[in-house]
Specification:
With 726 residues, the chain is mainly beta. It has a 22-stranded antiparallel β-barrel. A four-stranded antiparallel beta sheet has the order 3-2-5-6, with no helix packed on it. Strands 8-12-13-11 form a four-stranded mixed beta sheet. Strand 5 and strand 6 form a beta hairpin. The longest helix is centred in the N-terminal third of the chain and has 17 residues.
Length: 726
Amino acid sequence: MKQLIITVVALCAINLLYAQHSITLLIKSSNKKTPLAGATVSIKKQGIAAIADSSGLVTVLNIPAGTQLLEFSHISHTAKSAEYRFPLLQQQPVEIYLDEMEEEEEEVIITSTRTSRTIANTPTRVETINGEELDEKNNMRPANVSMLLHESTGLQVQQTSATTGNAGIRMQGLDGRYTQLLKNGYPNFGNFAGGLSILEIPPLDLQQVEIIKGPASTLFGGGAIAGVINFVTKTPKEKAVYDFILNQSNIGQSNIGAFAAHKKGKLGYTLLAALNWQQVYDVDRDDFSEVPKGNNFTISPSLFYYPGGGTTIMLGNSLTKSSSMGGDVQVIGGKADAYHVYFEKNETTRNTTVLELEKQQHNGSNIKLKQSYSIFNRNISTPGYTFSGSNRSSFTDLSWLQRGKQHVFISGINILYDQFRQQNTGLQNARSFTAGLYMQDTWDITEKVKLESGIRFDNVTYHTNNFRKNQVFFLPRVSALFKLSEKINSRIGGGLGYKIPSIFTEQTEALQYRDILPLSNVTAEKSAGITADIDYKTTIAGVLSFSINQLFFYTAISNPLVLQPGLPGTLYFANAAKPVNSKGFETNLKFIYKNDLKLFVGYTHTAARANYQPVNKVIPLQPQNKLNLTLMYEKEDNFKLGLEAYLTGNQYLYNNTRTPSFWELGFMAQKTFQKISFFINFENFTDQRQSRYKTVANAPHSNPGFDDIWNHTEGFICNGGIKLKL
C-alpha cells in the first residue's frame, strides 16, 4: 500500500511538471488604449509563438509548467517582456500595454511651410526625401541632384541639350519654369540662373528635400504653379560630423566631396566642398558627345552664432564655378578641321550670399529676417555665336510667427529684385521688382481636422527694352487635413498662382537663346490648381507594414507664354488665347518587411494639354505614364542592396511624332565597415539610350541639328567609390 501511494504521488508530480498550460492575453497600445492586431507573443526558449487577432486577443497554448519568459512585440510599438508562473491562477485575459514607437515620418519636421510642424500634422501635402534615400542617390550621382529628382514619382528631369546634358525639372507635366526651386527657402534659381540649376546642386550636405505638389504661392509667390522643391541643408549639431566621398565612373567622371559641421558653445559652422571632373564621352561613336568634357567646383561655408536668448545668426556663402564643352569630340580634343567644327561651350559662375537672423520667443513664436544676394554669370558659345549674360537677384523676407493653443499664424513681407543683362548687345536686358505681403493661419480645429489658409498680395513691375508693365496679384490658398481614422487620412488643397514673362524656358535653353526676339507686350501667366489625396497605413501579422497614397491633381494656366515663329529666322513669345491644362494622379505603395526588406511602387498618369496647339494638343516630351519600382534590402550599419526599374511611357515630340516606351534598370550595393563604406552602382545596365533608335545628331556634320531628347543619351553607367563618416 505504501508503495502504491508513493507511485501515485510521483505520477502526479511528473504530470504537474510536464503538464501543458495556456494563457490568454489582450494586447493594447499604451498611448491610445486601442487593441494591437498582429502583435506577436513568443516564448523563445520553448519555440512557441502566437499572433493577436483583430481585437488584440491571443491565446498561447502548450506552455510547460514553471516560470516562463514571454516576449511581446509589434511592428509600430516597442517590444517588452514579462515572466509568468504556470499554471496561471488568473482566468481573465491578461492585459499587456506596449508603448508606441516614434515613426520616422512623425519625426520629419517640415521647413517649407515655416510652421516647424511634423509632416503628419501639416495640412499642406509635403513629400520628403531624406535619410537612406538621400544616401543612396548620393552614391549614384555625387555631382548633382538630377538622379535624386529623376527617380521621384511625379517628377521628370528633362534634358535640354544632346551634347552638354543640360537639364531642367518638370512637375505634373508642366514646363520647368512653373516649378520653383529653393535652397533653404531662398529662390535663387530663377530665370537665366535656372538653366543649370539642378546640375549645380551637390547632394552631400542635404538633410532632406521637401516637395510640395500643386499651387504654393502664399509663401513663395510667383513661379510656384506646379509646385515647390526645397533643398534643405544640414545644420551644425553638438556632435561633429565629417563626411567624405570619392567616386569614379566608367564614363570618365571623377568626384571628390567633403562636408563638415560642428556646434560648440555659441559658435557653429558647416562647410561643403565638392570637385567634379568629366572626360568627353561618345557612346555611339558618331563623333558627338553624349557627356561633355568639363569640371565643376563648389565651396559653401556657413557660420552660425548663438548669442543666447533664443537668437540665431547665420552668414553663409556658396560659390560654384563650372566649365563644360560638348559637341564634336575632335574639336573638344583640339583636332578641329573643316569637317569637324561644331561645339557647345558653357562657362558659369554662381555666387550666393545669405544672412539670417532669428529670434525665438518663450511662447514658441519667432521673428526671422532672411536676406540673399545672388550673382550668376554664364557664357554659351557655339561656332559663330555667343550668348553671354549676368543674372543678379536679391531676396529679402521678414516674417513673424505666432503660436496659440489652436492656431499658428505667420505673416510677413518680402521683396525680390531680379535683373538680367546681356553682354555686348544688351538686346535681352530685363528687370523685375516684386513686393509681397502674405499671411497664413494653421488652425487645429480638432485633433482630427486641421485647416491651413493663406493669402498673398504681390505688386510686380517688369520690363525689357521694349515695354514696361505693372501688375497686382491676389493669391488665396487653402488646404485641409482630415484624420479619418488611425490608419486613414486625407488632404485637399487649392490656390492661385502666376508667372511673370521670361525668355528663359526649356525650349529656348535647347536653342541656346539663338534668334529669340526680346519680349514685347506680353502679360503674366495665371494659374488655378487643386490637389487631393488619401493615405492608408496598416500592419499585417505584426511584421509587414503597408501604406498606399493616392494623389489627384489639376492645374489650369491662362495666358500661357508660347514661343512662335516670326520673321524668317526669328522666334518670339506671345500669350496664347487658350489655356494649358494638366491633370492626372499618382499612386505610391510601400511595403516594409521587418524593417529590412522594402518595396516601393510609384505610378504617375499625366494628361497635360496645350489647348492652343492647332493639331496635337498633348504637351511635348511628357510621358503620359511612368512607373517606378524599387526593391531594397538593408541591414543597418552593415550592407544594403537595391534593385530599381523604371518604365517611361510614350511621348510626343515637337514634330508630333510619337516615341516608344522604354524600361531602364539599375542595381546598387553598399557595404559598411564601421566608419567606412564601399559602394558600387550599375545604372541603366540594359543600356537604354536614344541612339539605339535613331542618331540624335543630324547632318550636316559641320553644323548639325539635334533631335528632341526623350530618352537617355549616355546609356549604361557604372560607378563606385568610398564614403567615410567620422
